[in-house]
Amino acid sequence: MIAESTERTLRGLRDFFLACDADAMRRAYCVVAESDEQAPVVEDWADVEYAFNRIFVGPCVVSAPPFASVYLDAQPSLMGPTSLEMRHLYEAVGLVSPWTGSVPDDHLGLELDAYLQLRVALTCVDSTALEPALQHLTAHMRAWLPRFGLCVRSDFGAPAAVLYMVDRLEEVILAGDTERTR
Amino acid sequence: MTMGEQTDFFEQMLAKGVSRRGFLRGLAAAGALAALPGGVLQAAQAAALEPFGPTVFLGKDAYQTFRSACPRNCYDTCGIVSYVKEGVLHYVEGAPESSFTQGGLCVKGYSYPRTVYSPDRIKYPMRQVERGSGKWQRISWDEALDTISRKFLEIGDTDGNMLGLGLTKYSGNFGITHYGVEGMLASLGYTTRFVGTPCWPAGIDAQSYDMGDMWCNDPEDMASSRYIIIWGANPAYCSVHSMKYVYEAQRRGAKVVVIDPVFTQTAAKADEFWEVKPGADGALALGMARHLIDRGLVDTDWIRQNSIGYGDFEAYLKREVALEWAAEQAGLPVEAVQRVAEEFATAKPATIWIGYGMQRHVNGGQNVRAVDALVALTGNVGKEGGGARYGHLYTWGFNYHAFSQSPPEGSVGFVGETGPKGEFDPNAGSEAQTYTDRTFNINRIAQEILDASDPPVRALWIANKNVVSQDFDRTKILEALAKVDLIVTVDLFFNQTVEQSDIVLPTVTPFEDWTVNVSYWHYWLHLNEQAITPMFEAKSDIEIAAMLSSRMNALVPGSCTFPTEVDPKEWMVKEFNDGIHSLFEIDSWEDLRQGSRKAKLASPAAWADLGFKTPSGKYEFVSQMAAENEHPALPTHLPGREPYAPMRLLTPHHKYGLHSQFQNLDWMHDYNPEPFVYVNPVTAKAKGIADGDWVRVFNKVGEEKVRARITNNVPADTLLMYEAWFGAKNAYNVNRLVDDESSDMGRYKTGAPGVAIHDQFADIEKATA
Q: How far is A91 from chain B (nearest CA, A)?
């Protein structure tokens, strides 16, 4: 099972970490924070955008690169074994990144998309076929997201909105199995 | 397909008892997974669900190989074989067929995969909301080029010409197609060009006065030298592949002498090391020459047959130069100078490797002319294993198609005297035109921008160059850049120039691009094939030029002549011509896919036929051309710069970086984790400085705070700081301490004098972190 709220949260998180500008960040944030009265109120999305780029995109040395290989591979590099592992996982379930070869396949946004698609697919069909892929992807994300979260939280200038999204990211990935077995 | 239809589809698939793999393929065929939640990932043919695990090395045969070349500003310019699997560059190695590269790379070359796949790479076009603020927004290529185009058009509208647009570009990528940056500027009109070179211009002029051109022996022939003086160069750091020829010469019995102000890694390999006083190289060479004359050890036959002006030179030496004086100037024992001079003169073939360091002085050109003269009067010019080795451009005869673009019809430009636009300018010496670009000294970029008027520099395009880190007098540079309305930087990493830019555009690594490379030292030609898809949104220089042209012409048709579409591979092919084919004995560029090729040389020796390119056709101890350019006609002693602080400050190259490239990589930081100032123990004791202490190095230009390393490798009156280092903190900059004082030569062949990088002075004191 995947609750509608979880699906919505996953979609919002995916779009947030793939966002190119303040407006896309705001829209994605609103999807995740909808009906959450505790969610931080953002005064200026431009400030979030500057911080988001400083932490995740660049052009400076980023605090928390949103790529699994940086945290899981022996060398903190892009397009490492972990990136290819994710590419193979997507291929195994019939998916391909629109940015193959240019954006590493283990970008957080892509992994969230794969996770979301697999979760939804498994609500449509009682199949064990997709289970290994989802289990592997879940274990994989659980391995690197805590380290990623630590890097984000170590950035003392990280805005509350970004921290909120990282909190929700960890919640939804960690809670995934619990929800599915309900 | 609706959600209900999808469910039916899955059930039908399962009812048919399809295999797991078939089921997955079925999902893919229907686009089901991608369709369900509105995904980013798209439907594709499903692959077998292989066990997930780490990637393992599968042997070389499992990889696609590509030919690559290191295009950085380096003697060695290595041919590279790149190993690619699944579109990912896994590792690199030196081209095995090149007798120079011999299958090996330097530490920087081996780190290339880290450059390509660094999480710190600049990934997208970005705009800084307020320069230096760190407030960056990601923008599309279209938006970036629209902003830039509108500013360029505004410049044309405001000034009636494009001289308000400046270009500063140098050696970050010497791939031949990267001269398309100059081509892009030319296609916009007559613009302002920062010309010359911070690297080697005084020496180029010096050798041109002496021999008519800069031309060096094949470095591989050093193995046959009987005596090698490496003077002001540190190949153990900066040309590691050359060292094997030095070692081979030693193995065969040659003596190797290193002359340098610093006890370098090269010096550690030498048979004899002389710690010369900086800038006294010319005096020392003249003193050695005087001694050889006194001992009758000059090669009179060679001199008589192949030179002019020797009599004047000899008379000058006998009149003005004493051995004792020269030794004192150089800070060396007279006996040692006598002995080495005699050994050098009697050990034919003998050679001197003239490093670029010795010409980075106010008397740098004269230093090189004096050393050239020492090699010439011993009859070692034109000899295999001999020669006054400095550099060459012998193999650079490409078409420069990317470079050669025309301004839009009706363009108005600068009217007045102009010269070559750098040492690689293929149009140098061509006929004067009605209008030209406005040329400013690349080594005085700050002052030139500050002084520019009618029009001022309103926009600056920076490519293949880290101006704020590498150019001189950083404080003044920041002041100058503040005058410029728009600064666009094309780069790989967030360096100090990007930090001061309004727009940054991501560029490609060599592995994501097509080009062709040659060296200014060895004689090999390397193909650089595109091996992988460019990461993120990186573009090559010529792709950027084409996109800019497209936008410019969309806004104002005819405003830019650069083609609006380019194929980097086709443009690489356009650089080849019959001369290159013949020189390298190839039928087409495609032959280079089998490996790098070496130029067909009549002799490994430069000037082997002793037909010099001087006006007289001889080696010119007396150069009328030098006199016409307001230099002494003879290689004479020219005093060094008067010190303006207690200690000499030297800022040479580091092993783990090439100018400001490479040393930001994590692998480099493992070995070179922070910048230091290197201080002699005597000085350290006098100043109360212990190893690892934070110190302040300061002079009239500015100050830099770093930690100290105490070492006997530097003299007591000298401070050494390597030229660049950067990482996340991105703060170190030796050019807070280096001013833009010119060297004596450089204007003749490169359009602007060099810069006296090593004629700098500073003081030091203990500081707090």
A: 5
Is the pLDDT reported for residue B356 higher than 50? yes
Of B41, B48, B499, Cβ closest to residue A117 = B41
**Contact criterion met (CB < 8 Å) for A96 and B730:** no
Do B119 and A11 make contact, defined as CB atoms within 8 angstroms? no
Q: List chain A residues with CB under 8 Å of B135.
A: 46, 50
Listed in sequence order, the residues at least 6 apart from B300 whose beta carbon sits closer than 8 Å to its beta carbon are none
CA geometry: angle B85, B90, B91, nearest 5 deg: 130
CA A79/CA B595 separation, integer angstroms: 27
Spell out a b/e string for A14-28, using b for 16 or more CB atoms within 10 Å of the CB, else e: bbbbbbebbebbbeb
Stated pTM of the model: 0.93
Give, in degrees to the nearest 5, the angle at Cα A48 between A47 and A54.
95
pLDDT at B10: 37
The Cα B728–Cα A151 span in angstroms is 14
Asked whether the beta carbons of residue B20 and residue A129 sit closer than 8 angstroms, the reply is yes
Instruction: List the one residue out of B248, B247, B251, B255 whose CA is nearest residue B226.
Output: B255
Distance separating alpha carbons of residues B629 and A115, to the nearest angstrom:
72
In B6-155, which ranges are E strands? 42-43, 64-69, 79-85, 88-94, 126-128, 136-138
Tell me which of B40, B665, B668 to substitute to probe the interface with A (most A C-beta atoms closer than 10 Å): B40
ipTM over 0.85? The verdict is yes
State the DSSP string of B589-640.
GGGGGG--EE---S-SSTTTT----STTSSEESS-HHHHHTTS-SS------
d(CA B605, CA B385): 7
User: Between A and B, how many residue pairs show a Cβ–Cβ distance under 8 A?
Assistant: 199
> Which tokens is B171 given?
């050696």
Nearest-CA distance B648 → chain A (Å): 34
Query: Which residues in chain A are contacts of B113 at CB distance < 8 A?
Result: 77
Q: What is the DSSP letter of B720?
A: E
Mind telling me how many Å the CA of A23 is from chain B's nearest CA? 12
What's residue B423's pLDDT?
A: 73
Element (H, E) at B329: helix B323-330
Contact in structure between B764 and B695 (CB atoms under 8 Å): yes
> What are the pLDDT digits (tens) for A55-110?
999 999 999 999 999 999 998 999 999 999 999 999 988 899 999 999 999 999 99
**DSSP strands (E only) in B70-199:** 79-85, 88-94, 126-128, 136-138, 165-169, 192-195
Pairing assessment for the beta strands B703-710 and B676-679 based on DSSP bridges: parallel
Report CA-CA distances (Å) from B344 to B215, B235, B380. Answer: 21, 20, 10
The answer to whether the bond into A59 is cis (omega within 30° of 0) is yes
Nearest one of B648, B642, B641 to B718, comparing CA atoms = B648
Tell which of A60, A105, A110, A135 to mutate to test the B interface (max B CBs under 10 Å): A60
Asked if A117 and B136 come within 8 Å (Cβ–Cβ), the reply is: no
A69 CA: distance to closest CA in chain B (Å): 10
Q: Which two structure tokens, joined as six digits, stand for B152?
A: 């360029």
Whole-number Å distance between alpha carbons of B505 and B144: 8
